[in-house]
Amino acid sequence: xxxxxxxxxxxxxxxxxxxxxxxxxxxxxxxxxxxxxxxxxxxxxxxxxxxxxxxxxxxxxxxxxxxxxxxxxxxxxxxxxxxxxxxxxxxxxxxxxxxxxxxxxxxxxxxxxxxxxxxxxxxxxxxxxxxxxxxxxxxxxxxxxxxxxxxxxxxxxxxxxxxxxxxxxxxxxxxxxxxxxxxxxxxxxxx
Length: 191
Fold this sequence. Notes:
The protein is an alpha/beta fold. It is built from seven helices and nine strands. The strands form two sheets. Strands 2-7-1-8-9 form a five-stranded parallel β-sheet, sandwiched between helices. The chain has a four-stranded mixed β-sheet with strand order 4-3-6-5. The N and C termini lie far apart (35 Å).
């Protein structure tokens, strides 16, 4: 009797402006679907109060991050809001080879890199109902300076303009509706 080879998994790339609610959607999604694997990104930004190293991000120094780039250890990487973010390649590849559906939450530049290096990934863009609502969400987090909020809003306009590049766009105006749309996008057969 031979053991079955696991079927390859899939990579789901989720992108959207800062403050659009990606984290909230993904937390809810993982509660409903614990079988989904979340890719853990590396970043040079400091941890937020509720974040756990190795779970939410791998928090590394700029020097460590640059060494990862030089060694080809990142599937994608980008600089955003003054910090580096990137996806360690090996853990992601291992999970997909094990048949897992892996969720990769990254920003636009990284998503574009993944489209080039891993074209079979499904790309989902989360949109805010409006820029005014996005600004409200950013301010209500209470963690960014006025300058950072202005930078994030300017970046959001650029990112929103790129939404048509994605396989699926979801407007996050109602958590439950958005979650159902996200589930549909992830679990429906690829077109």
